[in-house]
Amino acid sequence: MDAYEILELQGKYLWPNHLLYYTDPLPLDHGEGMYVWDVEGNQYLDFFAGILTTSVGHKHPKVLDAAREQMEKLIHSSTLYPNEKHVRLAEKIADITPGNLQKSYFTNSGTEANENAILLARVVTGHQEVIALRHAYHGRSALAMSLTGQAAWRIGGTHAHGVKHAMAPYCYRCPLKMTYPECGVACAEDVEDVIKTQTSGKIAAVIAEPILGVGGFITPPPEYFGIVAEIAYTYGGLFIADEVQTGFGRTGTYWFGIEHWGVVPDVMTMAKGIANGFPLANTITTAEIADEMKGKGLTISTFGGNPVSCAASLATIEVLEEEANPAHVAEVGDYLHAGLKRLQEKYPMIGDVRGKGLMQGVELVNDRETKEPAADATNYVLEVARSSGLLIGKGGMYGNVLRIAPPLTATKEHVDEALEKLDRTFAIVHEMTW
Ligand SMILES: Cc1ncc(COP(=O)(O)O)c(C=O)c1O
């Protein structure tokens, strides 16, 4: 099928609210390593990795072999029957997660993993209310949309009961108009303020992304999660880290994003990069907390812990250990960050460069003084980068943050290629808009 035929069927048979990148959407055909090709044969350097998901690149032979081998044996069983890949993956993830996070519940998407985490927190604490952050994104079920702190992603007027939002630790646009570190991380105290003023005073959980992904790679200051986790405990709740974007080495140095803040959460949710694109998600907690679920009612997941996805995940983690461990991601990520900082010196539209590892955000503004969000320029950058053969993402509540997040197997050479394309792109967009 050519692009025209695909788009024709897309328009006719798929819901129109599927968000598509680009004015002229891009039907992809195949991928290999760091690159993808569209149906017309054009090649692109993939620096968004299917929304931070193909963590070891497209068509990695070890992931393919593992999945193929499992498909020959058993494609599906449901969680009614234990299987080897399911338990081996649970053991492996317990091994690489911090603290005594040990017991897993596998499902199919980040949304489900977060649903499961809130279910767990409510059952275990006996409390209902949950604190999330403004600018957060936690998924697309009714509850996950309610946890999400951005109107645009809360379609249908969804408001699940008992969810309140505290200020985001968004230093570049501080909600308190203060400056770090003189602020004393005052935004963290807002979590307590919200609990005291908007809840019954007893909460089930605080849930947060270590780096707010869809929110535009908002990166909280170093003290933030230590303070927030303590507040959660003071008011009887669990602290849940949504590692759907930040997990599996994405942020460099550690396997999971929250480790940068020196905090071990009670519950961690993960998906996206867990299996290099095979649908899989997980909610992990301590044995002590998980065991509280005994005798609390029945639960199954038809596709959860699917043996093929679990086999692909085990292979993905193995490849990460061999080819793209957290130290590699930190090194290549720092290299990318430094290159983006150089572009910031050159182009006044770049207001902020932030992030950790291979999760780098570039916030575009019309004026560095007023910080007026440059949503149009952001769209132009995406379009021009595409014509130069580079795919990147965007995010932020104002649609003005570029999200740069290649497969973790990216090398400095791939980063050089991306930076060169971005430099040319910014030069063109500068001429168009500045
Ligand atoms: C931090 C975070 N949590 C949860 C989700 C939902 O994951 P899924 O789309 O797999 O349901 C996303 C998706 O982008 C996410 O970024």
From TrEMBL:
Keyword annotations: Aminotransferase, Pyridoxal phosphate, Transferase, Transit peptide
Enzyme class: transferase
The keyword Transferase belongs to this UniProt entry's keyword annotation: yes
Listed GO MF terms: alanine-glyoxylate transaminase activity; pyridoxal phosphate binding
Pfam family for this entry, one: Aminotran_3
Residues annotated as signal peptide: none
Family annotation (InterPro entries): Aminotrans_3, Aminotrans_3_PPA_site, PyrdxlP-dep_Trfase, PyrdxlP-dep_Trfase_major, PyrdxlP-dep_Trfase_small
EC number: 2.6.1.44
Cofactor(s) recorded in Swiss-Prot or TrEMBL: pyridoxal 5'-phosphate
Subunit structure: Homotetramer.
Entry's family note: Belongs to the class-III pyridoxal-phosphate-dependent aminotransferase family.
Name of the molecule in the record: alanine--glyoxylate transaminase
Organism the protein comes from: Ardenticatena maritima
